[in-house]
Amino acid sequence: MDPWHRRQPGGGGSGVIRYAHGGVHGRRISTRQPAIAYYAPDGSRLSDAAARGFAADIHAVDAVLGEEIARSAPGASYRDVTEVALARQHWDAERTQRAREFLEHRCEEQYGVQIEQLAAHGLDDDAIDGDEVVFPDGYDVLSQHLAHGLDMRLGHAVTRIEWSDRVSIRTAEGDFRADTAVVTLPVGVLRSDSVEFVPALPQVNFEALLRLDMNAFEKVFLRFPSSFWDAGVYAIRQQGPQGGWWHSWYDLTAVHGEPTLLTFAAGDAARCTREWDDARVAESVMAQLRRLYGERTVSPTRIHRTAWQDDPFARGSYAYMKAGATTADHDDLAAPIGRVLHIAGEATWTADPATVAGAMFSGHRAAERILKRRVPIERAWSPDVSSD
Ligand SMILES: Cc1cc2nc3c(=O)[nH]c(=O)nc-3n(C[C@H](O)[C@H](O)[C@H](O)COP(=O)(O)OP(=O)(O)OC[C@H]3O[C@@H](n4cnc5c(N)ncnc54)[C@H](O)[C@@H]3O)c2cc1C
Fold first, then answer.
1. Model-level pTM?
2. Minimum CA distance residue for ligand 1 atom 47
3. What are the domain boundaries of the chain?
4. Residue 121's Cα: distance from chain center in Å?
């Protein structure tokens, strides 16, 4: 069992699948019992028994981590609480360090941020009920379905949102007026000066916004002429100082049938490699894979990586809770503004922030607040939604 996630879902076969930003979200790829290949700091593969022992260590830390998070002081970071949980194990330095770096990597890969920067409660919601699926043609299919039949204006960059008893939106393509508006700008955009609120956001929303921030998290896809990693392995993880940046790879071959590994540049790695060209990133990643696979390693034929940090309409991948934030900050950010303005988006959904599901539920909540009545969310998924 992969201990990547802090909260272990209950009951095998319950339909509860662990969720990871880093995991393959596939067309119903089975991730119930993923085969994880762990590599020791010297590059040798851990035996099954050693890997099970390591996973048990992480579970032991997780078993007390919840208590430590619950009693953490305001302002505590995820580093603070994990260090207390580690100290409670009374392990030797080497064993403690292996677990520590795993916790660091989990934090970076889940939230794209260094462990010292994430709030103690920042990983409270790292599990989602339901199957894990990939949209092989891209997530677009989801938003296109939801948008079907609506008057969508793309390419309208908003620069100013004026609110009083109505709302006025300024874009380079013209102004729009409405009785109410739902604002789904990412936290990175809200925190920048690219969109002006007039008057400024009320204190409750503004202060919540200050305690959240946009992360640095990029995907790096490497396509190979042939696979050189062990068959049946879904995730590759390396331990030790060499794995500071590149520590986890996921086999995506099943998605498109071509040997492909996905790894992540997260936190410091994402910021430091931001200016690098593809060849330099590929070489940096491959240096680590060569440590693990030696002469079996083949060079990639293609590299593709995301650049969410450089997208002025995103300014990062998704938001995280800074040390000092509380989970209530998500809801506070969405507090209705002057009865006319509603902020929605992934960062406003306390139960599952940083997810597509959270983004959608928050939009649904905003719509219900405007309509002042319940609307079954199932209607959004209905194939004949447009005829409603
Ligand atoms: C690398 C990566 C991996 C992820 N993995 C997962 C995963 O496995 N599972 C999961 O559930 N979620 C995952 N997420 C998170 C998920 O994609 C987000 O939580 C979700 O897309 C957020 O939706 P949103 O509507 O809040 O914001 P966004 O999707 O960011 O939408 C905001 C919109 O606002 C627009 N915009 C910005 N500024 C302006 C402006 N000035 N004027 C007009 N429009 C503007 C943007 O163009 C964008 O269309 C991942 C994200 C990334 C980047």
1. 0.90
2. 313
3. 153-214+318-387
4. 15
